[in-house]
Design brief:
CATH class of the largest domain: Mainly Beta
Largest sheet: 5 strands, antiparallel
Structural class: mainly beta
Order of helices and strands: EEEEEEEEEEEEEE
Strand content: 35-45%
Number of helices: 0
Low-confidence stretches: none
Number of strands: 14
CATH architecture of the largest domain: Sandwich
Oligomer: single chain
Mean pLDDT: 94
CATH superfamily of the largest domain: Immunoglobulins
Shape: rod-shaped
Distance between the termini: 55 Å
Helix content: under 10%
Length: 167
């Protein structure tokens, strides 16, 4: 069995030598298109390869979103944005943003607020009514049809950041 990622040259193919008319390919990338072909062989050598078939692996939960960026509007307002996960592992369907006031030991000192963003193209959130001079922990994660991926987090105190007006 010879298999490779769709779009890559067949010369880059992995080859699996099996003695049965079936095999299980492992360690494939999730939600990835592959091409493959097979050939029989015996003591006289290899036979002709089959036509190429294309297939796609199943989705898996996404990786964490890209680095969080903050546009500080005022001491109580910020806009947080992030990049799509490098490994979407499927079609991103939503994001979740959680922000929590924390102390210097990063322990919560107030209730967390959770915001669901059901438009996966919207990778930013305007957060208002924050406590002035309070440090917050912000966490963002992505979802696809398999489930939620891990959080990307960042800690920031708006009072220590330069402010920029909204564009």
């Amino acid at each position: 069995v010879k298999y490779w990622i769709y779009g890559d040259p067949e010369a880059d193919a992995q080859v699996v030598d099996v003695k049965t008319p079936y095999t299980e390919l492992t360690n494939l990338y999730p939600y990835c298109d592959y091409e493959m072909r097979v050939c029989g062989y015996n003591a006289l050598g290899e036979g002709n390869y089959s036509d190429i078939i294309q297939c796609q692996t199943l989705e898996d939960v996404p990786g964490e979103p890209g680095r969080l960026a903050f546009n500080v509007i005022s001491p109580t307002v910020t806009q947080v944005s992030w990049a799509e996960p490098a490994e979407t592992n499927g079609v991103i369907t939503a994001y979740e943003v959680i922000y929590t006031p924390i102390d210097e030991d990063k322990k919560p000192i107030g209730p967390s607020k959770k915001v669901m963003i059901d438009n996966p193209k919207k990778r930013m959130l305007l957060i208002e009514n924050l406590q002035p001079s309070q440090t917050y922990c912000y966490k963002v994660r992505a979802r696809n049809k398999v489930g939620w991926g891990p959080y990307r987090d960042a800690t920031i105190n708006l009072a220590t950041q330069p402010t920029r007006p909204m564009s």
